[in-house]
Amino acid sequence: MRLVVALLVCVSAQAQDFSNIKVEKVSAGHQFTEGPAWSREGFLLFSDVPADKIHRLVPGKGVDVFREDSHGANGNTFDTRGRLYTCESRTRRVTRTDKNGKIEVLAERWQGKRLNAPNDIVVRRDGHIYFTDPAFGNQADTRELDFYGVYHISSKGEMELIARPSGRPNGIGLSPDGKILYVANSDERNLRAYQVDRRGTVSGERVLISGIDGVPDGIAVDEKGNIYITAKGVAVYTPEGKLLETIKIAERPTNCTFGDPDLMTLYITAQTSVYRVRLDVRGAVP
């Protein structure tokens, strides 16, 4: 009986009601949107990669340009101190912008060679940074490294290569407790999971989800541990890898993040537009 009750509680904790969700377009007319990141100051940032800009969306007030000449900004995220982290695909580096606007380069080379084109990034609550470094399109023609990588930068600023997948790693995220790192692989159409210890060290690589419908891109995680993967729509999986639902979007989604003051809105970048969906669960802060 105790086992049955425990299972019912587990299922209830992960269950969500997707029957009445409404997908709303909140920004349009862009070239190719990516990298949504919610600031605790009450706005969403997102990249328009070909336009070389980062835009700011304030709910109810519209969109303006946050940064011109973004160096091909792709993935973005904030840490708990409100600092912005950006993957700059054209300059092949990862930067951090403090609250005063000062930009610091965190990573641009591995063993003397320039990175391929940093794509997506996540920061754990204690300051450990993880990012992917694939190469798409003409990025592959000029790369110096002969592999695709997933990297870790410790809270002390030490950088290490933690994975060299045969396919291109893309979206990246963390479980709510920060103990599992997720990496989407666009070529293999799967999601890998890694154990992460308190020092930020990664181990135990495994394929958690395979056969994803579409090309997996950016990901987000909610407070229950469910994983949202942008591919052919936004596919929602349990922490165990079971498909719960696919949220259909009018354009091909590229990335997603939770936002609004209650973190119960999923913002989705999708080609020329940005969409949002109100859900009955909050986003995780790993």
Topology:
Layout: H1 2-14, E1 23-27, E2 33-39, E3 43-48, E4 53-58, E5 62-67, E6 73-78, E7 84-88, E8 93-97, E9 103-107, E10 109-110, E11 113-114, E12 121-123, E13 129-133, E14 149-153, E15 159-163, E16 169-174, E17 180-185, E18 190-196, E19 202-209, E20 219-221, E21 227-231, E22 233-237, E23 243-247, E24 255-259, E25 265-270, E26 273-278
Antiparallel strand pairs: 1-26, 2-3, 3-4, 4-5, 6-7, 7-8, 8-9, 10-11, 12-13, 13-14, 14-15, 16-17, 17-18, 18-19, 20-21, 21-22, 22-23, 24-25, 25-26
Provide key terms for this protein:
globular, 26 strands, 286 residues, four-stranded antiparallel sheet, mainly beta
Notes on the protein architecture:
With 286 residues, the chain is mainly beta. The protein has one domain (20-278): TolB, C-terminal domain (Neuraminidase, 6 Propeller). It has 1 helix and 26 strands. It has one helix at 2-14; strands at residues 23-27, 33-39, 43-48, 53-58, 62-67, 73-78, 84-88, 93-97, 103-107, 109-110, 113-114, 121-123, 129-133, 149-153, 159-163, 169-174, 180-185, 190-196, 202-209, 219-221, 227-231, 233-237, 243-247, 255-259, 265-270, 273-278. The strands form 7 sheets. A 4-stranded antiparallel beta sheet has the order 1-26-25-24, with no helix packed on it. A 4-stranded antiparallel beta sheet has the order 2-3-4-5, with no helix packed on it. Strands 6-7-8-9 form a 4-stranded antiparallel beta sheet, with no helix packed on it. A hairpin with a 3-residue loop joins strand 4 and strand 5. It starts with a helix and ends in an 8-residue tail after the last strand.
